[in-house]
Amino acid sequence: MVDKDIIAHSRPTLGPDEAQAVSEVIESGYVAEGEKVKNFERAFADFLGADYAMSTNSGTSALHLTLLAMGIGPGDEVIIPSYVCSALLNAVNYTGATPILADIDPDTYNLDVSDVRRRINTFTKAIIVPHLFGLAADMESLLGLDVPIVEDCAQSIGAANHQGPVGLLGTAGVFSFYATKMITTGEGGMVTTDSRDIAERIRDLKAYDKRRDYKIRFNSKMNDIQAALGIVQLKKLGSFIRRRREIAERYNRAFESFQLKLPPTDTGHIYYRYVLGLKMDAGPWIQELALKGITGERPIHVPLHQSLKLGGYPAAAKAWQQSLSIPIYPTLTDDNISRVVESVTRCYEKFSKLI
Q1: 279 touches 262 (CB < 8 A)
Q2: What are 56-102's pLDDT values in tens digits?
Q3: What strands lie across the sheet with 52-56, from one edge to the other?
Q4: Which domain covers residue 81, as residue numbers?
Q5: Distances (CA, A) of 12 to 187, 214, 247
Q6: Model pTM score
Q7: Is 3 a member of any domain?
């Protein structure tokens, strides 16, 4: 049972429309991959303006199959940031390729282009570029490195920069619909691309059954229950983003005089996370907020270089230590937001002498 006095860090935005859509699929008796999945793929491609959209059972599967479809395997290297969840590391390792970690830009938390550049060599076959926390990465500079780019849009559906929406700027875009992402299908993912070859390879790889030939394929399909959720959620994405931006504006006004690093205010930012740079360890803040019924978190659980016991990633290490993510999602009420603001303010008053 959820304590109603505790404000969760993340929460899906679901209602009667989603319940009805799922109920209709169940009543139809067809719950595997079917017409709903095809409809969701078409709707997603149309929304983004992509030529192709292929659904999967998770964002990790979407990333794994994309790398395989690009021909990446043993002997190849793929550059990924250290300051990211382990799904990227797993996906590269699944292919047999070698993951190469790069540091981040301390201002945006996205990949540091200069650090990526120095790690490129003849074995580099791709760069996975997350648009972290809903802020588009510097794709113009990264594309200038002349290495195929897979955009990780798990936290950024609906985000954009001056070049256009994320997910259309690289060789392929990968999306996640996990429970607390921008839109949810419970679990699930999507790949977008304008490459017919990559699209056909992904469709071939994601389903193994009823094939005349044999090669290693996967059971990575989305089902119609998930797709029914996704269709409804996608229609609501615009309102979800507007509400997140409204909340971010309230936080910005409340905290603008504090000696804290606030999120960038780029017009294309969709604020999947609202991350504060504290200039001190985030642990005491998280504990203090918990006492006030507010769930704060380090936005990345553990940087990959720490998990792999590697050194040389100072920006990622500092971001992990000093960053605090506070609740920001569409179902936060105005009273909830006021409680978060008041609690963060009390924390700042308590800890500012340590900054």
Answers
A1: no
A2: 999 999 999 999 999 999 999 999 999 999 999 999 999 999 999 99
A3: 52-56, 189-193, 172-176, 149-152, 124-130, 77-81, 98-102
A4: 16-232
A5: 12, 40, 16
A6: 0.96
A7: no
